[in-house]
Amino acid sequence: MLKFVSKTPSPLKPGQQPWDQNKQKYGMYILDLNQNYDNALVYQDGNLNSGTLEAFVQHMVPTVDYYPDRTYLFAFLLNSRLFIKPHQLLHDVCQVCIRQQKLGSPEMDRESSKKFSLKLLQLLIEWTETFPYDFRDERMMRHLRDITQKCVAVDQSLRKTVGQLMQALIRKLATLEKYEDVLSRVNSAATERMHSLRTNPAAFQTNIIDVCPSAYVLAQQLTHIELERLANIGPEEFVQSFIKEEKNDTTVRLLDLKRTKNLEAYVEWFNRLSYLVATEVCMHIKKKHRAKLIEYFIDVARECYNIGNFNSLMAIMSGLNLSPVTRLKKTWGKVNMDKFEILEHQMDPTGNFTTYRQSLRAAMQRALGAQDGACDKIVIPFFSLFVKDLYFLNEGCMNKLANGYINFQKFWQTAKQVTEFMTWKQVECPYPRDRQGLNYLLTAPVFSENSLYLASYESEGPETNYERDQYKTLKLQCNAANK
């Protein structure tokens, strides 16, 4: 059990983290009954600042008269995996419920047991809804089944709630499994098409304009892909990507937590789109076709900007700025550069992408003010920059303070940024699907960097000694590979 140690309290101010009236009344520190100052939560100016892992676990467990604030729950469940595996955290929560809250014990009266069981179920519902991927671990499911059965034993009327909780969780996990299966099949199809291109290049004469002549429609299809991949990234993947392998004599601590498959798949999609753009341009021998494709992709990028799809916008701009494309000076001479320069300005990295960040904030404001139009709610950030911001936040702030307490201020900041991501990923794409366009974007052959350079040199011959040497080397490598 925890009690409060008197300290001069500070009144709550607008924007401060919520905390219950007992903390407001009794002060800034929470300590255990035996005055163990190593098991405390520390508040500063009314905000939860730091504490021990044990105290944070205690703080997330409800009582008959208390339920943890949702912002605290999200921040702690998101970041706690830096220090404890989710299955161990759930085990510890269950132990607090059984030993301290007397769940299922005759020592707790029936009405109190019912109230506590209902609050505990609410906690489990929030956990399974927000971090369902934690429950792909059988140890998590075992703890979940055990503790929910204890709740039902206390109050049979909770059986329906428990059933709904389990069904919703199973649906979420089945959806994830289906998505990962589709992703695997798409990747296999792309690999097969690339192999077919190598064995029979003449079979692939179609370009993206033939498949989807409208730049606006293609931007919509890109938005479908972006939103689908965003939706399947678990918020915990951002934190798990920070976990470093820590080896000792016999074990690897926390290594089984580093599950970031869907986050990595999204980054791979960005790279694929960039190289697809460059491939479409470089694969054509005729200059007028290359120029037409560059202008087409500029139009697609502009439509992505108008939609709020900044990730596809940046991927297209990155593809057009790859060296095998930028060196095609005769081709670029045929392109109207006005629209391209406007987009370049929007995604200019100067000042840590100041202009882009302004556009992102404007899109977020538009989404907040959107009424019924789902189109206005779309915000798809430049994902690599979003991950980079989180990375620097993680690297720039200590996980623990000098006294060994966990730095919860860092937890708040990380949770704030990931909460924005949670809002973005919940938007459903309002545009009609073009299956042919989607299939092309996901499976069309994409050249490697060397193949792009080779195609570029064959389109517009090398001009410098470096380019001539590189072209000669690439030709030799290509001939050797074809023997």
Automatic annotation (TrEMBL):
The keyword Magnesium does not apply. It comes from Patiria miniata (Bat star). This is Ras-GEF domain-containing family member 1B. Residues 1-20 are annotated as: Disordered. Keywords: Guanine-nucleotide releasing factor. The lineage of its organism: Eukaryota, Metazoa, Echinodermata, Eleutherozoa, Asterozoa. Residues 44-174 form the N-terminal Ras-GEF domain. PROSITE patterns: RASGEF, RASGEF_CAT, RASGEF_NTER. Residues 214-462 form the Ras-GEF domain. Pfam families: RasGEF (PF00617), RasGEF_N (PF00618). CDD domains: RasGEF, REM. One of its GO terms (cellular component) is plasma membrane. One of its GO terms (molecular function) is guanyl-nucleotide exchange factor activity. The keyword Amino-acid biosynthesis does not apply. GO terms for biological process: Ras protein signal transduction.
